[in-house]
Design brief:
By secondary structure, this protein is an alpha/beta fold. About 55% of the residues lie in helices and about 10% in strands. It has helices at about 5-30, 35-45, 55-65, 70-75, 75-85, 90-100, 105-110, 115-150, 165-180, 195-200, 240-260, 275-280, 290-295, 305-320, 335-340, 345-365, 390-400, 420-430, 450-465, 475-500, 505, 535, and strands spanning about 30-35, 155-160, 185-190, 215, 225, 265, 285-290, 325, 375, 410-415, 435-445, 525.
Length: about 550
């Protein structure tokens, strides 16, 4: 679909987004964070919980880095590898001893000053890294082989999220959703230890996940027995690594009966991108929701921290062949609050588009291929505007022009009333008719989700049939006006980001010394040149 009069502006916008990403990428790739260090331990094989019931990889990193910020810059890789050689323990047992304070990685780090010890640690770390890559490659191969055997469902894939918080109950729910016709099962990852602590420091009380006895059907295909009086130690959050493994196994079994591969998706909270990437690679999660700009704008994460986390995560996703879903851009209101004047719909859309493009090009710079990055096509709040459907069509057409190699995703809320019918009608009208319509995410609270799946598929089929029945279409009227204003607003947003930095996006609060952003003190430039993953992951 044509965009009359917009070619020059589109080219300028694309050039700006690529230029900013190219300028920022080297710094983000050269940085390390607490999240990156936790992810490296997970790659080495550290998993599960410590003796206090907290994630073990985080406990090891926290104990090593605590009170000595320079240790973060040098990383946990070589001290941990040195301890493995010194104590000759399995990875998991050593991690438990470090978390409990029985092994001091700071002492191991001192040994690295001797060339002989350093070479030994480097060899041990390289061996662990190679084993991690072998595991990732095996899962990537398994995905391709299963798709070849079971076949790929037609696109766009219909997606929805499980609601059960406990793994075994979530597996049962996931199995029911696969039988109902969904192609992608999305699971929310629980909040990590770091974010939980930061929120508590900010005065926000967050209840930690605690296991509780459940009674649920067995999630295995063909099994319907009752699970009662399950020992608490056997329970886990649905989005934990153990939980995702259980759900993965369940949907694979039921997909075999359905004769179509079913994808598992995960969505993690802020500050968790590196670990989410490793878990996805190890448990064959096919699609990860990872939006760096949403972390910065909507969740208050420090930009340097978020960008470094997601850059490392992208290198893992690239190796694993994981699809990464980048949202349509966050709702930016910081400049409006500073000015005291609300922005127009097109200005808000333009800011969202600018940040989405920047996030996508940052992911490309970190190694992700274009066809691995699924781009959100329409901000969800936009459809609720009075002329929402016309605006939404413009948003899709803009992204098809700017991101021609990237698949697109739509999200709709299908309630049982008039609003749900309207949402499906809009989706049918704006979804691209070509292969780029990859995922339609259906949120269907309070209704039969089997009906939601079939309704969504029928709506998209009608839309595709009609789209293929006409040619020569071009945007016009309010949709074209919105496209022009949105693209120009996106250019202004990136110009402001280049000249004034993040304050142009986040407003005055970005420079407020009393409102330190999450993770600002947990990102730094790496000082140790040895990185066993640098060549293996790329």
């Amino acid at each position: 679909m044509a965009l009359p009069g917009l070619e020059a502006d589109l080219a300028r916008l694309d050039e700006l987004a690529r230029g900013v990403a190219a300028a920022w990428a080297p710094r983000t790739l050269a940085a390390t964070t607490l999240g990156r260090e936790r992810a490296i331990l997970r790659l080495f094989g550290v998993g599960g919980l410590d003796r206090a019931g907290l994630p073990l990889a985080g406990a090891v990193v926290d104990r090593y880095v605590a009170g000595a910020p320079d240790r973060l810059a040098r990383g946990v890789t070589l001290p941990f590898a040195m301890a493995l050689v010194e104590y000759d323990e399995p990875v998991q047992e050593l991690a438990i001893d470090v978390a409990a304070g029985h092994v001091d990685l700071a002492m191991e780090a001192e040994l690295l000053a001797e060339p002989k010890h350093r070479a030994t640690a480097q060899a041990a770390a390289a061996d662990l890294a190679e084993r991690a890559m072998d595991r990732i490659d095996a899962n990537r191969t398994a995905r391709h082989e299963l798709i070849a055997v079971l076949s790929d469902p037609p696109r766009p894939w219909i997606s929805t999220a499980v609601m059960e918080p406990e793994a075994r109950a979530a597996a049962v729910e996931a199995g029911d959703l696969v039988r109902a016709g969904f192609d992608v099962i999305r699971v929310e990852v629980p909040m990590g230890r770091e974010l939980h602590g930061l929120l508590e420091e900010s005065g926000i009380e967050i209840e930690r996940w605690r296991p509780r006895p459940v009674s649920a059907r067995d999630g295995r295909a063909g099994g319907r027995r009752e699970i009662v009086d399950t020992p608490l130690v056997d329970l886990a959050p649905s989005g934990s690594q153990r939980g995702l493994a259980v759900i993965r196994s369940t949907i694979d079994e039921i997909a075999a009966d359905r004769r179509a591969y079913v994808r598992l998706a995960s969505a993690a909270p802020p500050l968790a991108a590196p670990e989410q990437a490793v878990v996805a690679a190890f448990e064959r999660v096919d699609l990860v929701v990872a939006d760096v700009m949403a972390e910065i704008v909507a969740s208050g994460v420090d930009p340097d921290r978020a960008l470094a986390d997601h850059a490392f995560a992208a290198t893992i996703h690239a190796r694993a062949g994981t699809l990464v879903l980048v949202g349509p851009g966050p709702l930016v209101v910081g400049p409006d609050l500073a000015a005291g004047i609300p922005a127009s719909t097109a200005t808000r859309s333009g800011r969202a588009l600018a940040l989405q493009l920047l996030g996508i090009h940052m992911a490309r710079a970190a190694g992700l291929a274009a066809d691995q990055i699924v781009a959100g096509a329409v901000p969800t709040w936009l459809v609720e505007e009075r002329l929402g459907p016309a605006f939404a069509l413009a948003e899709v057409v803009i992204r098809r022009r700017l991101l021609p190699e990237h698949p697109l995703s739509l999200s709709v809320l299908t309630t049982s009333g008039e609003a749900g019918v309207s949402a499906l009608a809009v989706a049918a009208g704006i979804a691209p008719a070509d292969d780029h319509a990859r995922v339609l995410h259906v949120a269907a609270p309070g209704r039969d989700r089997a009906v939601a799946a079939s309704s969504a598929r029928a709506a998209l089929a009608v839309g595709a049939t009609l789209a293929h029945s006409r040619t020569g279409a071009a945007l016009a009227g309010v949709a074209l006006d919105h496209a022009h204003e949105t693209v120009r607003a996106a250019i202004r947003a990136l110009d402001g980001l280049q000249s004034d930095g993040w304050q142009s996006i986040l407003g005055r609060e970005f420079d407020d010394p009393d409102r330190r952003r999450f993770g600002a003190d947990a990102v730094t430039e790496r000082r140790d040149s040895n990185d066993p993953f640098a060549t293996l992951v790329g």
